[in-house]
């Protein structure tokens, strides 16, 4: 079974993240790039499925040149090869444009399953897997907390607000995973060394058959019109518990009419 | 005035609060038209009328037998047929997916996790863990907008709520992922986390899987219970109650954090709460930077005292 894992490089949540005043898009120079944390769960799940069913795991990433760092990380976890969709024309693409571009790039790879994280820590739209399934015309098995493949059938536990749904479809399909699905492995030294030799294919938009007028900031259907730092919260009151901390908190709640 | 489609969230015919918020927001843009999938529309219509729905489009429960795609087909079909000015859904994980697919079908754009929306359909977002506020819009086509619960205060207004059945012929592609079983996990009597007016959350400071100190306080306030990832990862509280970047985003009137340090990833899920109360034994804990009221102390003495005091005042 051949699996493609989608990986995105995002600004490190631990650093201060900024938008660029020139075009209101992410200022990638302002913070360090790291692999989107949920993608590590996607890679792990792909590797687990490969260990069980055989086949190859290909990493697919769309992003600027620096995204190679995340590709290497994915390869050093154990993925076999990578495709890097990189083109200036893609810069500033919104979530749906990204889904479109990835759906085209997927046309150049053979796969039975596409696995991705259920959202990225920067934009957090949570629509990519669904939009990708729409563009590809493939079954959408997103928000999966468990994945089982049996022959040509795939079954997942899809997280819902009341618990989960058991969902079934035929391969090929698009699966997005939530963090409770597994515990991502740490790359071993051996794998890190091997990863340096694994093939990374670069793909431009023409190679993938992506129409230039459907991607990039200028063609995006959505536009960030402005941004500003959030207004600071008014400083609150902090008291030390002298045996009456609970009572004082209750007084605050009463003042605010919560009790 | 153009129609604004609002996808109704309901449980067995009972309309969720977020839908009344969406109807309120829809009135700024145009004429609210509710879209109801599944049984129970008759019992829910009164509520929709109370919040200004002029129309209620009803569609068969069968649409919910498959993942996301059928509802997107329905919304895209209605948006085109009625020349809708916008489509609004609540920003739950599933509805955001519906919004994404609907926008792809319409060739328009999707805006998610919106905290406010104007009549020109300019949306406000709180990003980067609440540190930055952005405004966005859809440049072309019907905007599809996912609004966070508790963001737009619901205001009543009279609506005709005229029911109209819609028949949709589902494509084969929409039936590709079939729901074969629904598993309801323990929920109890507490309000739902993302909808609750008050949320009480516990973190690593709770110290064990005995969350009763958190639950008792929550129950005295009629609140939902949440947990930090440290508490969830320790197996102290179920996954679906995690608040934060990779958990639920909540925006209640009151958020109480017990033994939670206030890591950026936690803040991402609760920073837009209107009032924040924190109990933490470390005076340097970053959660105090956000707190409107903080108590430096042991939660195992402060929280029970607070619970007792609230119960006394009832
Ligand atoms: C990509 C990514 C995503 C993440 N997503 C999330 C997320 O969605 N949600 C989330 O919560 N975290 C998330 N995290 C983890 C986050 O960084 C923190 O590790 C986590 O929030 C810490 O939880 P905590 O505050 O309960 O624990 P800690 O940070 O360990 O804090 C415990 C606090 O309890 C206090 N305390 C201890 N004992 C007591 C006592 N008896 N009385 C009072 N106070 C006491 C301590 O002083 C301390 O401040 C994410 C991390 C990453 C990298």
Q: SSE string of chain B, helix = H, strand = E? A: EEEHEHEHEHEEEEEEEHEHEHEHEH
Distance between the termini of chain A: 58 Å
Q: In CATH, what is the class of chain A?
A: Alpha Beta
By CATH, the architecture of chain A is named 3-Layer(aba) Sandwich
Oligomeric state:
heterodimer
From the alpha carbons, calculate the radius of gyration of chain A and give it in angstroms: 21 Å
Largest interface: A-B, 88 and 93 residues
CATH fold naming of chain A: Rossmann fold
Number of helices of chain A: 7
Helical run tally of chain B: 9
How many whole angstroms does the radius of gyration of chain B measure? 21 Å
DSSP strand tally of chain B: 17
Question: In order across it, which strands form the biggest sheet of chain A?
Answer: 9-8-7-10-6-1-4-5-11
The stretches of 5 or more residues of chain B where confidence is low (pLDDT under 50) are none
Lay out the secondary structure.
The complex is a heterodimer of chains A (259) and B (314).
Chain A: E1 3-7, E2 9-11, E3 33-35, H1 37-53, E4 57-62, H2 68-77, E5 81-85, H3 95-106, E6 113-117, H4 128-136, E7 140-150, E8 153-160, E9 163-170, E10 173-177, H5 189-195, E11 200-203, H6 205-208, E12 222-229, E13 237-240, H7 245-255
Parallel strand pairs in A: 1-4, 1-6, 4-5, 5-11, 6-10, 7-10
Antiparallel strand pairs in A: 2-3, 7-8, 8-9
Helix pairs in contact in A: 2-5, 3-4
Chain B: E1 3-7, E2 10-11, E3 14-15, H1 17-29, E4 31-37, H2 41-50, E5 55-59, H3 69-81, E6 86-90, H4 93-106, E7 110-117, E8 122-127, E9 132-138, E10 144-147, E11 162-165, E12 178-184, E13 198-202, H5 212-221, E14 224-227, H6 229-233, E15 254-258, H7 264-267, E16 275-280, H8 287-290, E17 293-296, H9 299-313
Parallel strand pairs in B: 1-4, 1-6, 4-5, 5-11, 6-10, 7-10, 13-14, 13-15, 15-16, 16-17
Antiparallel strand pairs in B: 2-3, 7-8, 8-9
Helix pairs in contact in B: 3-4, 5-9
Bound molecules: flavin-adenine dinucleotide (FAD).
């Amino acid at each position: 079974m051949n699996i493609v894992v989608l990986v995105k490089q995002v600004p490190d949540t631990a650093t201060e993240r900024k938008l660029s005043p020139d075009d209101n898009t992410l200022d990638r120079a302002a913070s360090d790039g790291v692999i989107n944390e949920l993608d590590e769960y996607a890679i792990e799940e792909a590797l687990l499925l490969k260990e069980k069913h055989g086949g190859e795991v290909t990493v697919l990433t769309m992003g600027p040149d620096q995204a190679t760092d995340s590709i290497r990380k994915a390869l050093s976890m154990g993925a076999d090869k990578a495709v890097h969709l990189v083109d200036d024309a893609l810069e500033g693409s919104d979530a749906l444009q990204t889904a479109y571009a990835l759906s085209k790039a997927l046309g150049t790879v053979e796969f039975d399953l596409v696995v991705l994280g259920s959202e990225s820590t920067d934009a957090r739209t949570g629509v990519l897997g669904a939009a990708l399934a729409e563009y590809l015309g493939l079954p959408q098995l997103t928000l999966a907390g468990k994945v089982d493949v049996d022959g040509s059938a795939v079954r997942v536990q899809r997280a819902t607000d009341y618990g989960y749904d058991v969902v079934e479809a035929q391969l090929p399909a698009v699966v997005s995973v939530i963090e409770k699905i597994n515990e991502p492995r740490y790359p071993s030294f051996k794998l890190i060394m091997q990863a340096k030799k694994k093939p990374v294919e670069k793909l431009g938009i023409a190679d993938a058959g992506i129409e230039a007028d459907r991607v990039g900031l200028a063609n995006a259907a959505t536009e960030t019109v402005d941004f500003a730092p959030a207004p600071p919260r008014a400083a609150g009151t902090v008291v030390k518990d002298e045996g009456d901390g609970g009572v004082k908190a209750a007084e605050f709640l009463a003042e605010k009419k919560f009790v | 005035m153009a129609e604004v489609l609002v996808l109704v969230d309901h449980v067995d015919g009972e309309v969720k609060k977020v839908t009344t918020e969406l109807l309120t927001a829809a009135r700024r843009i145009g004429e609210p038209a509710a879209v109801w999938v599944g049984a129970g529309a008759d019992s829910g219509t009164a509520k929709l009328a109370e919040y200004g729905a002029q129309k209620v489009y009803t569609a068969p429960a069968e649409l919910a037998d498959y993942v996301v795609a059928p509802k997107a087909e329905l919304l895209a079909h209605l948006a085109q047929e009625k020349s809708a000015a916008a489509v609004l859904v609540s920003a739950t994980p599933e509805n955001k997916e519906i919004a994404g697919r609907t926008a792809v079908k319409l060739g328009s754009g999707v805006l998610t996790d919106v905290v406010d929306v104007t009549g020109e359909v300019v949306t406000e977002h709180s990003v980067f863990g609440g540190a930055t506020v952005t405004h966005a819009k859809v440049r072309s086509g019907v905007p599809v907008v996912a609004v966070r619960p508790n963001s737009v205060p619901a205001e009543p207004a009279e609506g005709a709520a005229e029911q109209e059945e819609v028949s949709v012929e589902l494509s084969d592609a929409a039936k590709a992922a079939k729901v074969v079983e629904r598993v309801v996990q323990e929920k109890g009597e507490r309000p739902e986390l993302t909808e609750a007016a008050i949320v009480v959350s516990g973190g690593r400071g709770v110290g064990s899987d005995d969350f009763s100190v958190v639950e008792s306080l929550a129950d005295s306030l009629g609140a939902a219970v949440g947990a930090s990832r440290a508490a969830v990862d320790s197996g102290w509280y179920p996954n679906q109650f995690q608040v934060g970047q990779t958990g639920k985003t909540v925006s209640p009137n009151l958020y109480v954090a017990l033994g939670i340090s206030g890591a950026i990833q936690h803040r991402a899920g609760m920073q837009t709460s209107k009032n924040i109360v924190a109990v933490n034994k470390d005076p340097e804990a970053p959660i105090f930077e956000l707190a409107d009221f903080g108590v430096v102390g042991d939660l195992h003495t402060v929280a029970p005292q607070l619970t007792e005091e609230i119960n006394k005042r009832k």
